[in-house]
# Entry
Amino acid sequence: MYNFEFEKPSSIADAVAALGDEEATALSGGQTLLPTMKQRLASPTKVVSLLGISEMQGICTGDDGALCIGGATSHADVAAGASAYPGLAALAGGIGDPAVRARGTVGGSLANNDPAACYPAGALASGATIVTNAREIAADDYFQGMFTTALDESEIITEVRFPVPQASNYQKFEQPASRFALVGVFVAKYADGVRVAVTGASEEGVHRWTAAEEALSANFSADAVPAAPGADGMIADLHGTAAYRAHLVAVLTKRAVAAAS
Amino acid sequence: MPKDHGIGASPKRREDIRFLSGTGNYTDDMNVNGQAYVHFLRSDVAHGRIKSINLDAASAMPGVVKIFTGADFEGVGGIPCGWEITDKHGNAMQEPAHPVLAQGKVRYVGDQIAAVVAETLEQARDAAEAIDVDIEELPAVVDMAGALVDGSTKVHDDLTSNLCYDWGFVEENKPAVEAAFADAAHVTTLELRNNRLIANPMEPRVAIGDFERASGNSTLFTTSQNPHVIRLLMGAFVLGIPEHKLRVVAPDVGGGFGTKIFHYAEEAFCTFAAKALNRAVKWTSTRSEAFISDAHGRDHVTTIQLALDADNNFTAVRTDTMANMGAYLSTFAPSVPTWLHGTLMAGNYKTPLVYVNVKAVFTNTVPVDAYRGAGRPEATYQLERVIDKAALELGLDPIALRRQNFITEFPYATPVAVEYDTGDYHATMDVLEKMADLSGFEARRKASEARGMLRGIGINCYIEACGIAPSNLVGQLGARAGLYESATVRVNATGGLVVMTGSHSHGQGHETAFPQVIAEMIGIDESMVEIEHGDTDKAPMGMGTYGSRSLAVGGSAMVRATEKIIAKTKKIAAHLMEAAEADIELKDGTFSVAGTDKSVAWGDVTLAAYVPHNYPLEDIEPGLEETAFYDPANFTYPSGAYACEVEVDPDTGKVTIEAFNAADDFGNVVNPMIVDGQVHGGIGQGIGQALLENAAYDENGQLLSASYMDYAMPRASDLPFYGVDHSCQTPCTHNPLGVKGCGEAGAIGSPPAVVNAVVNALRSGGHDIHHIDMPVSPSRVWQAMNG
# Structure
């Protein structure tokens, strides 16, 4: 790890100001950033912790009934406190291990947008709203490919609003080594239709499986899940071919629907 | 009623108090006044010619003491290889130079180019980034078959090819084996790969070199399974330091599994640099560094054939293996695919003819050497897999086929040069059949199928040769070392004992188990016996711990030394009681004179030895300290039968271990709890190999699984509760305790059981599959099911 300055502001405004410096980076739970810094693969000159900002912590229900989660809320807190949205609570409770869940945060996960992370699937399938210090971003506009999002430099995710579906489930098939999602599928059934988001599988990062959404919106049953999507654009690596990942997308979607029904 | 002390009891491990409370003394816990830190600049390309190394900017960085490169080691010895193989034509193996720091070329990702010594570790790392190295990248030699093609790029320009040796065993048997295959009623052929593994001990490697100018003495603190061997190899072959000027200390060591046997360049560097700089130099491997600098294990590509006659008797076995050596020969690398592998190819079976061919190959990868089991897992895996395949092809019950071919009379001289002294393979199989509830399997399979899952069972046997081994034999086989063990038993005046052993404990529980043996011999409490190990200044020359040898060889040395102590104390007791020595009996820590009520306590006799006022000084010396060196007459041959039951999810290919049962014959058992633990750990690593672990390189020689993000270690949730039984005990006939080794059995015996079970499960689902290579990962299983 290289030397860096460290700041821990107590307000969003102070954090934004601190992040105005070039080469400054926001630190939330640090589950990706700190290992990267330890390996000298990242060298920020200033690290701004977001964990001292009380207004970014906690879970509440919005006027429209959406579950609102502060950007710096840990996975463990969501797992324990998001009972209004059991599918999302279960997703949070299945990330990493207890140590990871105690530190990692929803805002950190979404800002990083690892192609195998769990939260992006939950946010995209929920049609969540990503609230930043500057604006509100619809999930459909937010995810822009592996490790790429609509966030500007120094923009902070302060809150994420998850519309609560009638039924939902997240199925993760773990990569044997990292235990990240080799493929993960989140299915959320709303009054106006079903949304299906897939993580881990695609070289484009998290994405919606629209063919499944259409079929499930018409008939929400595992039998309605279409045949596996094509393997083009799926990730191929040591742990699975593109065809295997495509196959898992359909298997996990069926399982998620069955579990949600 | 189980015993509560002595041989056969299971006292809790006394060393665990410090291990579990964070008060162990590991090498990284040690610091020497004024020490500097070294960081190694390692190659990030697999193969390249070093055109220039510019140290100007780096040397000017803050805190830099000195930066060393290969040029600083000209005239210094290279890392030696401890075993020479003679090929099938009678020629010595090709043995490349193995410099401490790269000279001219880098040969694998991780090869050390330069060593930066600085005041702090961070300063050393900073300076390493400022070193300007110009490397002309060369094509990487990764695939073994490709490496052996004429005209292939050579890993070592001064060798004739990438072939280290082409070994035939037993070469004289080859024509008879060929004839047996020609006459066979059935031949089963299986091609397989024994996957490359990384040992991943919990404690990464550490080395601290120290030098005392006043005495001229060097000290190396290191994470080693065998400090005396390191002292000899490094002192004599690399740095030219005689043993009396060099001390090697391996304190608490957090797991070895083979990869801490070997002498590594980092050890030699720290010792060399400490002397050159007149200050201590410390190196602590990071986990990332361990992946590319600890010797890897296994990595064989094999074709095995089994010939059977019309009555299903095995008539011959023939195997062809390519064994990856990596870029350089690690300390015992050449012995693993040859003598530790070929000599086990008879397995538990009376196959009269065996021929083993092994081609050892240099590639641009991390050196490969012994990993838990070392050669024996490779032999067991291929043999037990091909037998299962033969049973499938012939429609035979795999257990019955094995039983029909079991060796039943002992001693048994195999066609591959070893003699099994004892064993009872039917007995372990009998126990296993009950443990694994084979009769209930069909009902369990139906229950799994009702849940949409495929269920399979896999059975196999194993035999291994451990307690390594007779020095004269291994010398004939090319070992450049003896393989005895030493012990010094020091009895203090008040009766307590300190035993200094050449064995090394890096998790095995020696501090608990060894006192059980000695206390039982004397009849005293185990708390009166303390074990010292791991310091060449304390223990006599010893060979260390690997090959499941500590109790069988090191324990036998302790028994011999303790016998000398008992003989001397009997002389003293006879004098004190004015009786004939022949009439003295020692029981429960008391000497008595047969047929009388005269007695004298152990402590009275030991006190007399050091306060010899009333003492037979004309016959014996004062004091009570004896040393023994024990060189066994043979290997020991543990054996057993293992059963694995799996469920396979046909939708995802995921394999779950539902049950694992192990019936082992370890001869006599000193501490059953420790033996259970050794078997548990071995099976855990075997299941890891079978299902999860895979050190994979891409075609450019980059390690794809270079961290835990991609190298899958087994976790508790991947493993079942094991059934373990060692009630079948055919005592070893040639060591005084009648013991066999237990440390590697689990890792040797378990992989074929897992793969046999997966194949069995898939076939029950209608998939015409005979084999899946390890690791049997979900994607590979799915691939197998879906063409």
